[in-house]
Specification:
419 residues; alpha+beta; binds zinc ion; single chain; 5-stranded antiparallel β-sheet
Length: 419
């Protein structure tokens, strides 16, 4: 059986049912990780999974796995899912879509009485958003061995300081299963795009080929404070004038490597920040992103050269410190091919796309063959209560997920057949 469809109406109803938990007045959702509302959402998800015949386990990071057994229990499972936690002013689809699309895959297979070779597990990762506990993606990060378990459980609430592990205990989700360390045949994650490209291109499905690399910098520019009146223009060592030129250079570097580069200065501190004193010191941040490491390296060289040249021309010192580096993460070629083949088999318009944001899939890609499926969101807006997506697009993404999961879950066994 190929090119199977899913029940889009049932998927939409489940999304709307889950969106009631933590619903905000403006039509969004606030369901912070490990809050009382997150507990309610998790329990609803588990109830639905059990009704669908899955066995549910929870690991020590509170990650939930709902397993639909395959014919050959010795084969490693195919995982699919995302997260149920949201931003404080979050929407109804970010993360939730990937979890409930996974559940819809299971429900569809049940409708068809379809037995896969390998087992399928739908996963809900803990604290993807990083809003209540930093860093983000910590549940999948521990699973993938990026962080150790102790680090994950010790994460403090950004406001109250209460520990993630204590909150897991409190809401009854401190599970007993070991975190990760077991083979996974493949991981697929369906997600709203959170950007405008698919909508602009009128493509309902994005075949995600990887996630961008990132280089973050902290730049300190030092000149000399002086009186704004008596100091002639030619004698000045104005750190803010130099920084303004550097910020412009950052923007030009981004444009020079378009369309895939992103270059942003989002944080600036001017010292002493007094209207009649020439600024002596400026601190600002730079966020570079690109899917290719070689281009990120070129951008790095251009940034350092521009800062040195601008500083030299007006007698400033510029310290360029790399603060964080996250290499580009291309997804597994064969998993990406499964997604593309599923999309083509179903006859849906599609395009390749790179993820601009971090996702649990980025960490899972370190330990399992991984790919993602994007669907458009209205206006490209997310992390916002007005976040929206079209039922038809969500259904198409879910059908692609079903067929990609099936291809992997039946690989390594006999040809798929009904039980
Ligand atoms: Zn998300």
């Amino acid at each position: 059986m190929r090119n199977l469809g899913i029940n889009g109406e049932r998927l939409w109803q489940s999304l709307m049912e889950m969106a009631k938990i933590g619903a905000t007045e403006k039509g969004g959702v606030c369901r912070l990780a490990l809050s009382d509302l997150d507990k309610v959402g998790r329990e609803l998800f588990i109830r639905w999974c059990e009704q669908a015949g899955c066995s549910v386990s929870v690991d020590r990071m509170g990650n939930i796995f709902a397993r639909r057994p395959g014919r050959n229990p010795k084969l490693p499972p195919v995982l699919t899912g995302s997260h149920l936690d949201t931003q404080p002013t979050g929407g109804r689809f970010d993360g939730v879509y990937g979890v409930l699309a996974g559940l819809e895959v299971i429900r569809t297979l049940n409708d068809l009485d379809y037995e896969t070779e390998a087992s399928i597990e739908v996963v809900c990762w803990t604290n993807e958003e990083g809003s209540r506990f930093s860093p983000p993606m910590v549940g999948s990060g521990v699973f993938a061995g990026v962080f150790d378990l102790g680090y994950g459980l010790e994460r403090p609430d950004n406001v109250s300081g209460v520990k993630l592990g204590d909150e897991l205990q409190r809401i009854g989700f401190a599970g007993e299963a070991a975190v990760g360390g077991r083979p996974v045949a493949a991981y697929f994650e369906a997600h709203i795009e959170q950007g405008p490209i698919l909508e602009d291109q009128r493509k309902p499905v994005g075949v995600v080929t990887g996630a961008q690399g990132q280089r973050w910098y902290e730049i300190t520019v030092t000149g000399q404070e002086a009186h704004a009146g008596p100091t002639p223009m030619r004698k000045r060592r104005d750190a803010l004038v130099g920084s303004a030129r550097m910020i412009d250079a950052v923007n030009r570097i981004g444009l020079a490597h378009s369309p895939h580069a992103c270059a942003t200065v989002g944080f600036v501190q001017v010292s002493p920040n007094s209207r009649n004193t020439i600024p002596g010191r400026v601190f600002f941040t730079v966020d570079f992103r690109h899917p290719e490491d070689a281009v990120l390296t070129a951008m790095d060289n251009e940034l350092r050269a521009a800062c040195a040249e601008i500083a030299g021309a007006i007698g400033l010192e510029a310290e360029v410190k790399e603060f964080w580096y996250f290499p580009p993460r291309p997804f597994d070629k064969s998993c990406v091919a499964s997604v593309r083949a599923a999309t083509e088999g179903l006859g849906y318009p599609h395009m390749d796309i790179i993820s601009g944001a971090g996702h649990d899939a980025v960490y899972m890609a370190r330990v399992a063959p991984t790919a993602m499926i994007f669907v458009p969101c209205v206006g490209g807006i997310s992390h916002n209560e007005i976040e929206d997506a079209k039922p038809d697009d969500l259904a198409m993404g879910c059908a692609v997920l079903l067929n990609a999961v099936l291809e992997r879950a039946n690989a390594g066994g006999d040809s798929p057949r009904k039980s």
